[in-house]
Amino acid sequence: MGGQTMVRRKDIDGSESVPCFYGKELRWKREAAGLTLQQLVGGSFYGLSYLSEIERGHRRMPHDLAEHVDRKLKTDGFFARNCEDVRKAKRADHGSYFKRILEVEKNAERIEEWCTTWIPGLLQTEPYARAVVRAAHPSEAQAQADAKVYERLARAEIFDTGRLRPEYWVILHESLLRQPILPPSEMAEQFNHIAELTHRHRITPQILPWNSTAQPMLAGAVLSLDFPDAPPLVYTESAYSGETIDDPTPVKQYRRSYDRLRAAALPPEESLAVIENAAESFRNGKHQLWLEGRALTQ
Fold it and tell me: Cβ(262)–Cβ(171) under 8 Å?
């Protein structure tokens, strides 16, 4: 062999989950047909990396891509028939389901987020993340809670990696700047952190005023992701469940609603001033005035 070593690629554990079983079957059929990832995805609207993540169980197979794969592999509709079952299986476990978002988030070129109940995870400081995790899981062992916190903080590395960072746009309801879920100094630190990311051109924040008229998506959290090699995704979340949506029709509806929400929010420059004012108010004790009903934007 002339001293050469063969690098063996990591196999897929099909017993780990339904998506992994589906992905392993896809890889087996592709390799049996003698096709590379690039050859199989050729002629579709998807990129090589998208198909690779499906094989590893990290992404759902869209129905149109499944039909394309069936035609190329001559698999008699197997992947198209079963892709919906795979999607439903992923939905059953919210914790595992969000791991898919953690995975694809790293490949996004644009992220848009909206939440009315807490500062989004990508923007949280450690004290804030710890308070949110403990509130959701009050009886959880400390080690498990710590793992959730550190995983959440690790997400923010996308703002500082050497590769091209995603454009991140976030709309925050002004009520989030009024909730003293931490001691004043730590709330000031949280808002300073958001302001710092803004000054470093890592994020673009907007504030929806507390006295805004009725707007779309006022209840719930929405995360929208755009990719250079795949169609966009939307992730919606409630207290103990979440769902990834890649059907083009509802994705368009969510994105149009986000655009209307953005139009109703304060401009980025004014929003930054409101965030910095919130930090200063918590730092010097004036935040108590908000609890008496005074608006930040007055």
Answer: yes
Rounded CA separation 116/176 (Å): 7
Q: pLDDT tens digit string along 23-47?
A: 999 999 999 999 999 999 999 878 7
Q: Which two tokens stand for residue 146?
A: 């710590």
Q: Which residues contact 144 (CB under 8 A, 6 or more apart)?
A: 137
Residues in the chain: 298
User: What's the longest Cα–Cα distance across the chain?
Assistant: 79
Taking the C-alpha atoms of residue 212 and residue 174, their distance in angstroms, rounded to an integer, is 10
> Kind and range of the H or E element at 149?
helix 142-155
> What value does the mean pLDDT take over residues 265-286?
92
β-strands 242-245, 167-173 pairing: unpaired
pTM over 0.70: no
The contacts of residue 111 (CB under 8 Å, 6+ apart) are 105, 122, 166, 167, 168, 169, 223, 224, 225, 226
Distance (Å, whole) CA 61 – CA 101: 14
88: left (phi over 0), alpha (psi -120 to 50) or beta: alpha
